[in-house]
Amino acid sequence: MLEIKNLHVKLADEDRVILNGLTLSVKAGEVHAIMGPNGSGKSTLSYVLSGREGYEVTEGSVIYKGEDLLAMTPSERAAKGVFLAFQYPIEIPGVATMQFLKVALNSQKKARGEKELSTPDFMRLVKERASKLNIGPDMLKRPVNVGFSGGEKKRAEILQMAVLEPSLCVLDETDSGLDIDALRVVADGVNGLRSPDRAMIVITHYQRLLDYIVPDHVHVLSRGRIVKSGGKSLALELEAKGYAQFESEAA
Amino acid sequence: MVVQKTAAEMNYGLSLPHRKMEDWRWTDLRQLVDKPYPPRQTVVAAAKDVERLLRSSPFAKVGGARMVFVNGRYAAELSQLKNDTVTSTINVDEPVITMNAAFATDGACLKISGTVDTPIELLFITTNAAARTIATRNVVEIEQGAAATLIETHLGEGSYLSNSVTQIRVGEGARLDRIKVELEAADAIHLSHVHTTLGKNSVFNDFTLTSGAKTNRQNGTVEFKGQGSEAKVSGAFMLGGRQHADTRLVIDHQVPHCTSRELFKCVMDDNARGIFQGKVIVQRGAQKTDGKQSSHALLLSETAEFDAKPELEIFADDVVCGHGATSGDLNHDHLFYLMSRGIPPAEAKSLLIAAFVGEAFDLIAHEGIKEALVKFSNKWLSQHRSGRA
User: Fold this and answer.
1) Is A71:A51 a contact under the CB 8 Å cutoff?
2) Which of B8, B51, B69, B373 is most buried (most C-beta within 10 Å)?
3) Cβ(A160)–Cβ(A82) below 8 Å
4) If DSSP codes are grouped into helix, strand and coil, which group holds residue B36?
């Protein structure tokens, strides 16, 4: 589904190189965890995949379902099934959550040449997906993420994912700022979306999230490249020994 | 120094305000009134032109009784409300009022007692004819304990100067919700002055949408005459092309225990220019005044411009007053978030612009009117942002 080859990325307006030859292959149905210390390039990877401005790819390629992902605009990527669950979801005053979800879903359907959902069908879909994430009508009435607690914001991200049904989900530090109960709700939501057609990249600093979202593969990111890959036991090893060992290997 | 009169001034026999006058520094009518607009002309309007204009009101379906003015004259056959003779005196030396006093041909005289449930619409329409000045003088009186919602719509075609002066009195314990929509023709000039006095424990909720005319200058004065009153004066600009809109408000707290709020949301595209001048006066003895004003501009192009001039004049010591003004571009993080969910750039921008002006629309109590304005703003956005990334 996703082939990242020798990806080099720098910040657009300064010379700092953040990704430095990252290579990663993700197949449909797989869950990959990317772990690494602060500043290793985890969030940059998520932004480059979703098309945020401010980053410049100097070398390498990202092929998604056989197409050049880097040539697409953010909305084209989304319509083709790429979804980023933000580490810090953005508050948008004045835009109602329901309206936002509906415009997003129907824009994607339109771009794919599918039939748009009618308002009643859309309402039914959102209510059904929202109830599984403990999201009541009250939250849906508010503007996008405005006044949401940290946990509510993360649940709202997963709701968007459940409604938009992407093929490739990138979860950036979805566990940050969550207490154990909220983490469980979010993880259950994510696990409910695991499917043979869908791949996930779970970016996290801590092993804790991976007790709930169990990955097929774990990769260690250090100084902009993957320095070690393994099974889920690698996450436990990292938890026990820390990242220091990889910092020296990368250098 | 002898200043040569402009052609328009010669035609009027009046001097026009110019940029050396502090209140008019951004709106030099000596230049902007670009040719003579002869006053007091009699123009017979074709029925089909009038019908087309009436249908184009955003409030055609909101219902309620109408009072229609065609080319500055009350049109009884199009109106459900009877009109009376206007007697209005505003003791303020102000150029828009001076022009109006010289040239007004007619106007609405409205006295409301009791509670009127459906909105009343005053429609001022101008049909296409030779360039001319059309001046109307209106008086609105909301009697003690009465309540009403008043819509004022200005529509037209062709090249003209419209001058509208309105005197409003809101009586003790009365409430007026007023919604003005300025959708004059693209080649028109709109000048207005609204002078409002508020009695004890009254409520005045005023909203103005400014989206028509090539040149627009709107003055508003609100005088608090009785304690315990509340005024909300808000508005939205939706401007493009080379449109110029200047709003000047004076909120005059003459008595204690009154509250005033001003909120203006201004969207400007292309080479449009918006100006907001807001002055809050708290007179000696007007203690416990709570007055706040803010203006926010969203500039959609590099060449659009917004100027804000907030002023506070406070002569009492136990008051809460404040002002704020911002001006900027769309928030890039907001845009990226919407696009990352599959919303194309042009639509993402429209959503954010609609949300920006929506904050001012939300101050309108009447749902039907609010919906009509949201519909208008969506139409404006689709015309102004279509095909642009």
Assistant:
1) no
2) B69
3) no
4) coil
pLDDT tens digit string along B292-351?
999 999 999 999 999 999 999 999 999 999 999 999 999 999 999 999 999 999 999 999
Residue A248 pLDDT:
59
Between CA B217 and CA B23 the distance in angstroms is 11
Domains of chain A, with CATH numbers? 2-250 (3.40.50.300)
Is residue A157 within 8 A of residue A89, CB to CB? The reply is yes
> How do residues B38-88 score in pLDDT, each as one tens digit?
999 999 999 999 999 999 999 988 878 999 999 999 999 999 998 888 787
How big is the A-B interface in CB pairs under 8 Å?
A: 77
C-beta neighbour count of B27 within 10 angstroms: 23
Cβ atoms of A24 and A219 within 8 Å: the answer is yes
CA distance A90 to chain B (A): 7
Strand order in the sheet with A67-68: A17-26, A2-11, A55-64, A67-68
> Rounded mean pLDDT of A172-201?
90
Token digits for A58?
């100097």
C-alpha distance from residue A139 to each of A9, A96, A125 (Å): 38, 10, 16
Task: Give the angle subtended at the CA of A157 by the CAs of A155 and A163, to the nearest 5°.
Answer: 100
Contacts of B25 (CB under 8 A, 6+ apart): B19
- Determine the distance from the C-alpha atom of residue A201 to the mean position of all C-alpha atoms in its chain, rounded to a whole number: 6
3-state secondary structure of A59: strand
ipTM of the modeled complex: 0.95
Give strand pairing partners of B71.
none
Residue A231: CA count within 13 A, CB half-sphere: 1
Q: What's the DSSP call for residue A143?
A: B
Identify the contact set of chain B against chain A, taking CB-CB distances under 8 A.
332-334, 336-345, 347-348, 351-352, 354-356, 358-359
Give the residue among A38, A9, A6 at the shortest CA–CA distance from A23: A6
Which tokens belong to B350? 């429209």
Q: Quote the CA–CA distance of B207 and B219 in Å, as a whole number.
A: 13
Chain centroid to Cα A231, Å, comes to: 20
* Contact between chains at B359 and A94 (C-beta distance less than 8 A): yes
